[in-house]
């Protein structure tokens, strides 16, 4: 496998630099908004960096409470984030204002704010480690070596450590509702999606989704080269979110979720809706969701405390229980999920981030996947 490797079992866990280049989503989104005028990174000024003090200095809670509300950007389900930060505020006394921004919108917005010197965001919980790592290379992410980093394996944090760390693993199995699809005919492998019975009955998130891009990236050198053309002939349906896919699955309007974020499994069960997950033997396409502190943060103490808590065992247990997802910590388990050690997890690995973050690679995917889902 050229581009990916299987993630080692968490039980085995113990506690790449290149020249900066524009990120794929920043180029795609910013070009339409007229924001890309050069390939030069927008680095924070020496004054900004000095104002932050020592990046690894421990945060002070009393000072954090005086810094004003923390501004958090994220790409997650808003209700989950609101529930989580409510508990964080109760525990720390630090207020948090949240705004949902997917990478395609977040990075162009940050570009514009850097240009005008009006950047106000403090922390970003992103859905794309490749783009986050490009931002690290461009000097936009504050390095803070949280004491919690010792609990995270190397593939779940930046190199050098401290710029970003995985706050959950978004694993992508297939899903179906057993009321409409019996287990004996349900697909078991990726190749099974090519069965004529599933023509027009498979749902994928569209090309705008980072999870769809990661799926293609980790499977393109594993599956036969003609798999994607044959998949296009199946006329799968495109959706803007995994929630929309699950809504149609439970209605019987589409039979198979071709790649669905695993947290939808527990969300369905909590709503008393039947659902089955399929983890193909070739591997489950997954993404590591990173959190990082933006380099121009005006609330460094509050930002560090937020990151410390999110990465702590208690914070990870709360976040992943709320969402129904997998933690990158081996000492956190969410009831109702199969052990992650039983799943062949495929993620874009750090040594492939340059290719993964390449505008050309992403453009190749967008052209292909738009054809697959009929756009």
Structure explained in plain terms:
This protein has 14 helices and 13 strands. The protein is an alpha/beta fold and 375 residues long. It folds into 2 domains: 10-27 and 47-169 and 287-341, D-Maltodextrin-Binding Protein, domain 2; 171-286 and 356-372, D-Maltodextrin-Binding Protein, domain 2. The strands form 3 sheets. Strands 1, 2, 3, 4, 5, 6, 12 and 13 form an 8-stranded mixed β-sheet that branches. The protein has a 3-stranded parallel β-sheet with strand order 9-8-10, with helices on one face. Helix 1 packs across helix 14 and helix 11 (300-311) packs across helix 12.
Sheet of most strands: 8 strands, mixed
Query: What CATH architecture of the largest domain do you see?
Result: 3-Layer(aba) Sandwich
Strand coverage percent: 5-15%
Q: Give the number of DSSP strands.
A: 13
- The CATH class assignment of the largest domain is Alpha Beta
Mean pLDDT across residues: 86
Task: Summarize the helix and strand pattern as letters.
Answer: EHHHEHEHEHEEEEHHEHEHEEHHEHH
- Helix tally equals 14
